[in-house]
Design brief:
The protein has 248 residues and is an alpha/beta fold. The protein has one domain: TIM Barrel, CATH 3.20.20. It is built from twelve helices and eight strands. Strand 4, helix 5 and strand 5 form a beta-alpha-beta unit. The two termini are 18 Å apart.
């Protein structure tokens, strides 16, 4: 069963809407863990539009019994920050100031030399590296060549069009990454309607889900919102059993 890692960026988004001190992302993280979260994920953006440096520092100090993942762009500034806070997992993501959310996977092919050197620097600081990547075999292959430990398969296209074709693209990408020896995560756009099938894909180690859970938490509270998603992930074994029966 995949680990459920909760992205709490949008707790900070609400805080930054009024430039105040609440809601507190650290408290949100603690409540998410009480609800069953296996990990906490944040994206420290260049423009600090939600999560800020203090949040990352406090999370690194207080999130001890679950995985703490820092999503970040491959910049010198982020290299310095990550090397100080030592999160359990680094996920390299593309970043554009004008985007509302990450729009696609990192183009590893186009930045192979730079990302290879950058990944090497992270490894020298004893950091585990994941790359957020489209469900594209060539991109996955290059991610392996540059030394990534994990890839996180971008599930955005499937989330927008949750049909059999898009699901199979994600599934085949996961299978290919595993054949290459990469550990494999999945995330982006996953919600209470489309997560079950992805959670059932053999080889997915972590699901990184944020917006839908925080949105749900506004209505039912964060512990209950996490519990509901955790139940969906746990029930994914039903899909796995169905696959065994069908012979797929």
């Amino acid at each position: 069963m995949p680990k459920l890692c909760i992205n709490i960026d949008h707790i900070a988004t609400v805080r930054e809407a009024r430039k105040t001190i609440e809601p507190d992302p650290i408290l949100g993280a603690q409540l998410a863990i009480q609800g069953g979260a296996d990990g906490i994920t944040v994206h420290l953006r260049e423009d600090r539009r939600h999560i800020n440096d203090r949040d990352v520092l406090l999370l690194s100090q207080n999130i001890k019994n679950v995985l703490f993942t820092l999503e970040m762009a491959a910049t010198d500034e982020m290299l310095e920050i990550s090397s100080k806070v030592k999160p359990g997992l680094i996920t390299l993501v593309p970043e554009k100031r004008q985007e509302l959310t990450t729009e696609g996977g990192l183009n590893v092919i186009g930045q192979k030399k730079y990302l290879s050197d950058y990944t090497s620097k992270l490894h020298k600081n004893n950091l585990t590296v994941s790359i957020f990547i489209n469900a594209d075999k060539e991109q996955i292959k290059i991610a392996k060549e540059i030394g990534a430990d994990f890839v996180e398969i971008h599930t955005g296209s499937y989330a927008e069009n949750p049909n059999e074709k898009e699901f199979n693209i994600v599934k085949e990408a996961v299978e290919y990454a595993r054949v290459l020896g990469l550990k494999t995560n999945a995330g982006h756009g996953l919600n209470y309607q489309n997560t079950g099938l992805i959670a059932a894909v053999k080889g997915v180690e972590q699901l990184h889900i944020g917006h839908s859970i925080i949105s749900r938490a506004v209505i039912v509270g964060i512990k209950e919102a996490v519990r509901e998603m955790k139940k969906l992930v746990e029930e994914s074994k039903i899909y796995k059993e169905a696959e065994k029966i069908s012979g797929n």
